[in-house]
Task: inverse folding
């Protein structure tokens, strides 16, 4: 008896293996034949689900950003106190990239293509707008309470957060060599997490009016 095909499971497997193929060989070097072979399916099936090579890559790119945005929703920044909300966002972003190197790899590949395909995903940009607005709200609330410095641009802040959370992963091999520090070491990564958090929070606190900030016992809760 022939087994019934599970479209959702088949598509998920193609996306997973396809992502590894594009990350390993780049868009131009990726081959549908190799993906089909590793998926143990026909090329015809891949074309049926995704249309062509570009369609598969677009689906993989979209899935990467969807994973980030969907997991961010668990933060519920709209109800958070400003300091705690920003700290939660910092922790989430750092841990997300630490745990999802495949997302980093596919975004890095798209950057090498100058965002050629991401431009075709207008809704991916739309998905990011609520996050930026949540950051803006937290920064403004924190400033009104006197905890944060004034006029912090939410996009600048988010770009700094993403950069600080990624650089040691994207360049871990070369940085480990030139600094003689093993950046895959768990202890070093924990030091890095604390450093990223402190750099960003100290930037917001610098020049703030109210120095009597609430003690959120953040480190104990997130140890």
Result:
């Amino acid at each position: 008896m022939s087994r019934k095909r599970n479209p959702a499971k088949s598509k998920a497997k193609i996306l997973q293996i396809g992502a590894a193929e594009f990350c390993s060989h780049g868009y131009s070097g990726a081959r549908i034949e190799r993906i089909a072979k590793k998926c143990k399916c026909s090329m015809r099936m891949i074309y049926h689900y995704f249309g062509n090579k570009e369609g598969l890559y677009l689906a993989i790119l979209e899935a990467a950003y969807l994973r980030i945005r969907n997991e961010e929703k668990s933060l519920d920044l709209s109800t958070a106190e400003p300091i705690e909300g920003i700290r939660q966002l910092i922790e989430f972003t750092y841990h997300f990239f630490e745990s999802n190197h495949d997302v980093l790899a596919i975004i890095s590949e798209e950057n090498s293509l100058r965002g050629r395909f991401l431009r075709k995903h207008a809704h991916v940009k739309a998905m990011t707008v609520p996050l930026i607005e949540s950051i803006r709200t937290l920064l403004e609330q924190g400033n009104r309470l006197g905890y944060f410095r004034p006029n912090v641009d939410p996009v600048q802040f988010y770009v700094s957060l993403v950069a600080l959370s990624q650089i040691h992963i994207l360049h871990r091999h070369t940085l480990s060599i030139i600094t003689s520090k093993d950046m895959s070491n768990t202890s070093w990564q924990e030091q890095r997490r604390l450093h990223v958090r402190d750099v960003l929070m100290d930037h917001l606190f610098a020049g703030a009016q109210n120095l009597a900030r609430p003690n959120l016992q953040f480190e104990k809760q997130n140890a």
